[in-house]
């Protein structure tokens, strides 16, 4: 126990605290010397570092006989906290003479199996480089100020339950306050006061004198009843036309949803091979016809076995990304021992897209889900904004469905050919298609992301790949808009 109690940093803190006690005179020197003898003794010599003999009699707290020390051993030049003496007094009065700092033994019985599975799952994910603290810190859902209301609704708690306590109702009754004391009543009172201040400001403004030109004739703006005050230039005068009606600024009509996407991403390509799937998408997000954002990653990893590629509206892609992050956290915290594979995730996304379509508020995206199914076989499928799903050994969205699909089908014609395609062939075919899209698609970019999903290596994602071996020599032979040659 001497090794646990007498290490250097604790000894220095203890001396500082005891010096403060001696200077302020709040406790006798007996407690100081007892702690000094207990914590600073030497096993071999049986003496303290100052040469004092160790007390042989049992120590009984602050009633032990005092042992004096010389004033030369005390350095009171450094001011100490006024709370140190109180803390040390409580500690000396409550600690036993020989405290036991050993870690207590485990309770009887084995740990709960469910808790053991959770810890095993966390350790396994940590070995794969998945850290939940980082995910939680980056989660925009947890930064939502309305998160508390959602959690309370999910837990079945009412609004007043957040003020509940174990105290009796005569001491604290959260439901006994008047209506104006709650946040809703305070918000109404604040709104009422704001409206009164606006009305008072309007009345004061009407009582002010208007500017009159030196010539004695009114200006043209004044003759037409326009306001000259700087805060209301160009606005009709209230005393001529009545109070300004700003209700048109607040639309009370039906809620409108997105009818056409604004910032969009173009093609996503994917192809199966005998051991997995290759998927790629460029990093460009176009604002209409403007190549506005050149660093938008449109491939998302899900649980190290699945990659989702997004084509279409970028804002809807961000919504789906937050949805998948919440689902990933929920699945990783689950103790069931099962995780979602690519086929499960595709079914989930299909239900989400179909539900939003049925609400007449579709998500303007086409998704490619690539990964491994429950039997670790290559899986590739698509879902669009209507919730329509289909699978194929090669898939592409956007312009890639017209330009890249014919090239990919030359490599993988049908499911029977998948087993004969190697990883190198699939990767080279995707890279060649990305080059063709950069040549022909005005909404594409020469920087792209590519991911390879296999059973052995999981997901291998590269997000800043550059097209290589570009050649624009064919452009010299083309003139006009057709296939004419020079």
Structure in words:
This protein is α+β, with helices and mostly antiparallel strands and 486 residues long. It is built from 15 helices and 13 strands. The protein has helices spanning 2-5, 8-24, 29-39, 84-94, 113-127, 132-138, 147-155, 183-207, 220-223, 238-241, 314-333, 342-358, 400-403, 405-411, 423-440; strands at 263-265, 268-273, 276-282, 285-287, 290-293, 299-302, 306-313, 365-372, 378-383, 389-391, 394-396, 447-454, 458-466. The strands form two sheets. Strands 1, 4, 5, 6, 7, 8, 9 and 10 form an eight-stranded antiparallel beta sheet that branches. It has a five-stranded antiparallel beta sheet with strand order 11-2-3-12-13. Helix 2 (8-24) runs antiparallel to helix 3. It is flat. The chain starts with a helix and ends in a 20-residue tail after the last strand.
Feature tags:
486 residues; eight-stranded antiparallel sheet; five-stranded antiparallel sheet; 13 strands; disordered N terminus; 15 helices; alpha+beta; 36% helix
């Amino acid at each position: 126990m001497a090794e646990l109690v007498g290490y250097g940093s604790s000894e220095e803190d203890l001396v500082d605290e005891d010096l403060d006690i001696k200077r302020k005179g709040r406790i006798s020197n007996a407690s100081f010397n007892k702690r000094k003898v207990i914590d600073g003794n030497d096993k071999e010599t049986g003496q303290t570092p100052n040469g004092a003999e160790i007390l042989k009699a049992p120590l009984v707290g602050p009633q032990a006989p005092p042992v004096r020390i010389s004033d030369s051993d005390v350095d009171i030049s450094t001011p100490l906290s006024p709370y140190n003496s109180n803390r040390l007094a409580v500690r000396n009065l409550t600690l036993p003479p020989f405290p036991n700092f050993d870690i207590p033994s485990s309770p009887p019985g084995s740990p709960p199996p469910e808790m053991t599975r959770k810890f095993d799952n966390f350790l396994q994910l940590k070995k794969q480089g998945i850290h939940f603290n980082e995910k939680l810190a980056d989660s925009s859902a947890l930064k939502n100020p309305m998160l508390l209301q959602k959690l309370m609704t999910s837990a079945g708690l009412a609004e007043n339950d957040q003020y509940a306590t174990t105290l009796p109702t005569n001491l604290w009754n959260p439901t006994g306050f008047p209506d104006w004391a709650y946040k809703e009543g305070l918000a109404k009172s604040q709104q009422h006061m704001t409206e009164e201040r606006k009305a008072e400001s309007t009345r004061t403004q009407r009582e002010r004198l208007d500017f009159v030109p030196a010539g004695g004739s009114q200006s043209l703006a004044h003759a037409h009843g326009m306001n000259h005050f700087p805060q209301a230039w160009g606005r009709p005068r209230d005393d001529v036309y009545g109070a300004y009606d700003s209700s048109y600024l607040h639309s009370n009509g039906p809620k409108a949803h997105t009818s056409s996407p604004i910032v969009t991403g173009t093609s996503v390509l994917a192809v199966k091979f005998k051991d997995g799937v290759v998927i790629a998408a460029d990093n460009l997000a176009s604002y209409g016809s403007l190549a506005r954002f050149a660093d938008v990653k449109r491939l998302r990893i899900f649980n190290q076995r699945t990659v989702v590629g997004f084509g279409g509206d970028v804002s809807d892609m961000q919504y789906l990304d937050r949805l998948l992050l919440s689902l990933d956290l929920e699945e990783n915290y689950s103790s069931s021992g099962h995780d979602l594979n690519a086929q499960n995730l595709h079914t989930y996304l299909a239900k989400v897209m179909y539900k939003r379509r049925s609400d007449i508020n579709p998500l303007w995206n086409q998704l490619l889900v690539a990964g491994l199914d429950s039997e670790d076989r290559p899986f590739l499928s698509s879902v669009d904004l209507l919730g329509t799903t289909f699978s194929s050994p090669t898939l592409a969205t956007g312009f890639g469905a017209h330009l890249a699909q014919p090239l990919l089908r030359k490599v993988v014609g049908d499911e029977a050919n998948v087993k004969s395609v190697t990883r190198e062939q699939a990767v080279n075919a995707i890279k060649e298609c990305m080059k063709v899209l950069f040549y022909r698609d005005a909404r594409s970019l020469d920087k792209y992301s590519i991911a390879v999903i296999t059973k052995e290596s999981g997901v291998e994602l590269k997000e800043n790949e550059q097209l290589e071996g570009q050649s624009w020599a064919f452009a010299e032979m083309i003139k006009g808009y057709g296939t004419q040659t020079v």
